[in-house]
Amino acid sequence: MSQQPIGFGIVGCGSIAPSHLSAIEQTPGARLVALCDIVLERAQKLAEGREVKTYAEYGRMLEDKAVQVVCICTPSGLHGE
Fold first, then answer.
1. Which of 53, 41, 34, 32 is closest to 14 using CA atoms?
2. Which helix (H) or strand (E) element contains residue 55?
3. How far apart are CA 21 and CA 15, in angstroms?
4. Is 10 helix (H, G, I), strand (E, B) or coil?
């Protein structure tokens, strides 16, 4: 029986997000399914050429049942918020 890939979402599409995106794409069994940034255009730009959903509100992304793991890529002082 084959397992479904684990769906990853990224919150914060700034300078560190591409590194996380690359790691997800290179990890067997992982699949990027969503990108989120308060500036929606940043998420959309990072999503170009990929089949992923984009969000401006992380709460909406968390409602997506395909998102099982979230990488928090906001500035470290904002992780808790």
1. 41
2. strand 53-55
3. 11
4. strand
